[in-house]
Amino acid sequence: MSAREPDAGPAGIVDELKAGFGQASIEAQATRDAFPTLWVPKDRLLDVLAHLKSGAARPYRMLYDLTAIDEREREHREGQPGSDFTVVYHLLSFDRNDDIRVKVALKEGDLALPSATGLWPSANWYEREIYDMFGLTFDGHPHLERLLMPDGWTGHPLRKDHPARATDMPPFEIPEDKLEEDEKALRFHPERWGLPRRSGRSDYMFLNVGPQHPGTHGILRVVLELDGEDIVNAVCDIGFHHRGAEKMGERQSWHTFIPYTDRVEYLGGVMNNLAYVLAVEKLAGIDVPDRAQVARIMLCELFRISSHLVWYGTFAQDLGQLSPVFYMFTDREKILDIVAAICGARMHPNWFRIGGLAQDLPQGWDKPVREFLRTFPRRLKEYDALVMKNRIFKARTAGIGAYTIDEAVEWGVTGPGLRACGLEWDFRKKRPYSGYDRFDFDIPTGRNGDCYDRAQVRVAEIRQSLRIIEQCVANMPGGDTKSRHPLATPPPKERTLTDIETLIGHFLGVGWGPVIPPGEAFHGIEATKGNNGYYLVSDGGVLPYRLRIRTPSFAHIQMVPTISRGHTIPDLTAILGSVDYVLSDVDR
Amino acid sequence: MSLTLKMILIVAGVLAAALGSAAGLVWLERRLLGFWQERYGPNRVGPFGIFQVLADMIKLFLKEDWVPPFADKPVFVLAPAIIIAAVLMSFAVIPFAPGLFVADLNIGLLFFLSMSSLAVYSVILGAWASNNKYALLGGLRAAAQMMSYEVFMGLSLMGVVMLAGSFSLRDIVLAQERTWFVLPQFAGFAVFLVAGAAEMRRLPFDLPEAENELVAGYHSEYSGMKFGMFYIGEYLGLTLISALIVTLFFGGWLGPAFLPPPVWFFLKTGVLIAFFILVRGSLPRPRYDQLMAFGWKVLLPIAVLNLLVTAAVVLLAGNKAGP
User: Second label for B266, Cα 20 to 30 Å away, from A519, B133, B139, B188?
Assistant: First the structure.
């Protein structure tokens, strides 16, 4: 068990940077998550980032997240330099098993900063998203255009002065000419992407794959530059599934946002709740009772299996195999039945609460779980014979869409896609949360980082999740399922009837919402598709001031063009299938 | 008079049997796949859902007969008709029982091969006339795939022709009275089975269609009854290939006397059809270049080797028994 090394403490890197870049230019900020958080002036930004990426000992090699905060209405900014818009770089170091946050303050009137695309290719989409959502510009960005919103959108949605509700805006109209304009805007112009229309001997064909296409698993659009069936280049277009989850977060109380998280990665169910409530609990300083922790883990692992089964079946189907998807959906149905029996809903159970669970486990909950643990492994073995050992399946996936650990780190790949390259990195082991350190399980890894290894890692993960669930069933602790912390929402119901303080707390928490103390915290978990995390900024109110959702699929889809080049159209289907994304997770 | 009447009856009967079996297959395939995939399949329309085909037909007939404005209209309309015509013509040479056939051509097998070559046109022309990039890719795949697989298909059958000493399908059946050709010609059978599936674009050889990659491939732009004709064409093709395999390798109508010959023929064909459906339910789809490599590097050598060995054996045996 590798818990966090004490010597990688925050002081080390901050002092190092101060020594290297001068006391005045580095300013530290305290956060609830204890990641070192530094303010850096705009002109030193790239130097600091470059030093952190490659200069420092045990460097921060991955650009884990990149986002911004509109600070103009924030009241609690004690000890932070003045800023209208703050850009936040979140870097991850595998060697230190620690993160660092680098912040840059921007003033209205000068909302430009240098682009980090030269350091990390993955900065590309993150910077476009910030440009789209906040209107900040990045000098030196190769293609600074809107990413999630349509080209013709006016305003930048995540600015505080942009309306969050339809009723704050004039009625939505789409007259004929506007419709035509919008359709025209979607036409692909290779020149704008720097793609040549022809090479020396032949004209390229540009093929529009999606947003409606059976192989894209949702409304993703990939434009292919084709030479015959060979992919010369590809451009991904996302945003069709964008629902503004982060903006909604600013209009929902800390408590009422939980059901929205279910829908961010809609195959992960309560796994999404977990990342969010852990971040809120970190902000509020709430400890969760044992029974709630173990029940959370059990539900999460059930959802991991369920999500992997959807992937397993559809991946086989992407490669032309008709039957596996039906077998695997049958199994998934059994899991969803268990979930429904425990939580009352199937795909979006909305079952975790700040400080615990919505209810205790129902009587006899372990029976269907045990039954599933008994019957499922045998079927899983059959699937190995049907899919993983199939020679055509191997021929279609081995060596396709391969990347190395270094490439994966450059592009911000996490989860099974990272482990398939051979890096054993799993938050459940490296930074055990919710009590994962008390469980006995292995982290499967691959070697080649290709479609086949990614598949193999996921199949192995299903088996490990079964082990975890087995341990949950055997060792489910008794006791409370809700913390007694005053901010746990809603508070334990039975106590509301016996003491007035809890009743008042209940009344306020439900009618108004819990007041989370001001501060910032991030919590990342090992979700089904990779690392999912919530970066929360509280201004001491009942609503989050800023709610940033770091999703794995966003980074993974950004990498698809790179790993598709030189392959063919059928390989693209294999690559998309093996990446295992959900469009709602990409666009949020 | 009676001969003409008999001929007309046989032609009508064969036509009805072919079309009927294709329609029945729509239902059978979905039920069998359902059975193998832990689900029901169509089971609501009529007993066991057998009228599902009727419901589908009504639906397809009532759909708007739409030709995309950018398509090459005459070719677009003609293409689906070609496949139906070509496949139905092939049924003419299949002997269902002694005396129960439309035509006993002495080049029956060659007639089948030429008709199946014509069917390729349907797919390619339909794809080209659609003026759609996905259809084009599907059409290109179809052209390359079907042309290469026809080579092995023809070669794999020559062993049977040598053993029977005739291209007539009736003679080939009669030559199997002692042993079915599947035993001496197992390699030929294996190659023909694969090539036949490729020729009919059945999974795992449905690359021209490949819905996960090419949406619907060569018939992406087709709807209504024109799509229906491609659809029926595929099932007719499946029946045809199964019937041919039975004729060439499994003794056609021959079988123990407790069942009449046509029943034997239909039973054997049914088993093969079910086998094809099972294959569709279990295998993934290879990539286009893998399919080509498999054809030229594996199937072609097997077919040629089989041809040479058969020829040598026939020559030796012929010499011994010679005059």
Answer: B188
